[in-house]
Amino acid sequence: MKFALRLGIKYKEFLIYGMSMALVLLLLKVMEANFIVFNYRLDFFIGAIAIVFTVLGVWLALKLVKPKVVTQVIEKEVYIENQDKIEIDQKEIAELGISKRELDVLNLMAKGLSNEEIAGKLFISLNTVKTHSSNIFVKLDVKRRTQAVEKAKRLKIIN
Amino acid sequence: MKFALRLGIKYKEFLIYGMSMALVLLLLKVMEANFIVFNYRLDFFIGAIAIVFTVLGVWLALKLVKPKVVTQVIEKEVYIENQDKIEIDQKEIAELGISKRELDVLNLMAKGLSNEEIAGKLFISLNTVKTHSSNIFVKLDVKRRTQAVEKAKRLKIIN
DNA sequence: GCCAAAATCATCCTAAAGTATGAATAAGAT
DNA sequence: ATCTTATTCATACTTTAGGATGATTTTGGC
After folding, report:
1. How far is residue B113's CA from residue A147's CA, in Å, rounded to a whole number?
2. What whole-number distance in Å separates Cα of residue B112 and Cα of residue B54?
3. Which of A62-76, B108-122, B143-157 has the lowest mean pLDDT?
4. Shortest CA distance to B138 belongs to which of B85, B91, B90, B102?
5. For residues A83 and B81, what is the distance between their CA atoms, to the nearest angstrom?
6. Distance of CA B99 to the CA centre of its chain
7. Taking CB atoms and an 8 Å limit, are B56 and A57 in contact across chains?
8. Within 7 A of a protein CB, which nucleotides of strand D?
9. In angstroms, rounded to a whole number, what is the distance separating the alpha carbons of residues B138 and B54?
10. CA dist B105 to A90, B112, B120, Å?
11. N or C: which end of chain A has fewer CB within 10 A?
């Protein structure tokens, strides 16, 4: 487990530290001037100084230490429900040499329309639809309309 | 942004701190005994003590304080394209009254198999497949296998 | 304007799909 | 044990799909 522990430059904290130190030293001067210091053992005075500055040091350290940043990447699974919006593979269409009209027929085929219904929708004869569908089967290398639809969806030619 | 800032109990660090403090006070005693201290200004001595214990305090704090942990949660959206794994709507199947065998036929139908091929795969006769498919069409309220496949996929009966 | 590809349509034929009906058997539930 | 439902199969028939072939008409690019 790695963690970065760097000292940041925080002027405010240093300022407070400096002022505290000055205050303590000033206090010392006042005590010295009034001969208060030597009413007690020097040991205790030194000890007090040590404790105060230890506390100050601890405080300073806590203020200055930058927090360890743990980046936790949570993978949120988002299922795509829009099957309608699958992008159509134009390259594949071009490679297979499927024409616009054939694509029209293929799309209506995928919706479950009969050749006669397709003919009605596209204003062409049943024979023409048969010709188109036959060509589609050859180009898709399938034998039936159901296979054609299945393969076309798999190849993202239709949606 | 929450972060935990707790003091851990680390005896080794406290021991080192205590020993350092004892050493400094011992040094002080020795200097005091030899009248070294007062050869210099008390100010400088006190300043030195302050600096030493500040450093000790900082060191102690860094050792004792568990690093502030900032947990940064980044949600990464992972898109899943698995159309195969669309859950099948068992309720719909039950509501439509589609039997297991009919579902078998429907699934193979969706793969583009002919009735004869389905019969071969399921080890039943062509006539049986026709009976099943006819029943499927009635239950799905469609007229052709292509429509059946289209509607079945839409209703998530098959995938 | 010409040419190739795309789109259109027709005819004939076969294969597959779908309908209707009846019936036997297996499996599960009450 | 009985009754219903699912599964199986058959036969006869109709409709639709698909294959093969040929031909005409648009249409877009050079």
Report:
1. 7
2. 82
3. A62-76
4. B102
5. 9
6. 40
7. yes
8. 6-12, 16-22
9. 89
10. 33, 11, 11
11. N
Delimit the domains of chain B by residue range: 2-64, 90-154
This prediction's pTM? 0.56
Q: CA-based angle A86:A111:B137, to the nearest 5?
A: 130
Of A63, A54, A71, residue with least CA distance to A7: A63
For A151, the token pair is 């393969």
Task: Give me the pLDDT at residue A159, please.
Answer: 82
What average pLDDT does this structure show over A118-125? 92
| For residues B19-46, average pLDDT | 63
A5 touches chain B (CB under 8 A): yes
The closest of A101, A157, A158, A153 to A132, measured between CA atoms, is A101
Residue B87, pLDDT score: 81
Instruction: Please write the tens of the pLDDT for every residue from A3-49.
Output: 333 334 445 555 555 556 666 667 666 666 666 655 556 666 666 76
**B144 CB and strand D closer than 7 A:** yes
**A90-154 is classed CATH 3.30.1490.110:** no
Query: Which residue in chain A is spatially nearest to B84 when comparing CA positions?
Result: A154
Nearest residue to A63 via CA among B70, B49, B61: B61
- A40 versus A97: the higher-pLDDT residue is A97
Nearest nucleotide to B126 (CA to C1') is D9
Q: Touching check for A85 and chain B: CB below 8 Å?
A: no
- DSSP 3-state percent helix, strand, coil across chain B (nearest 5): 65, 10, 30
The per-residue pLDDT for B123 is 92
Those residues whose C-beta lies under 8 Å from the C-beta of residue A148, and which sit 6 or more positions away, are A106, A109, A133, A136, A137, A140, A142, B112
CA angle, residues A83, A85, A86, in degrees to nearest 5: 75
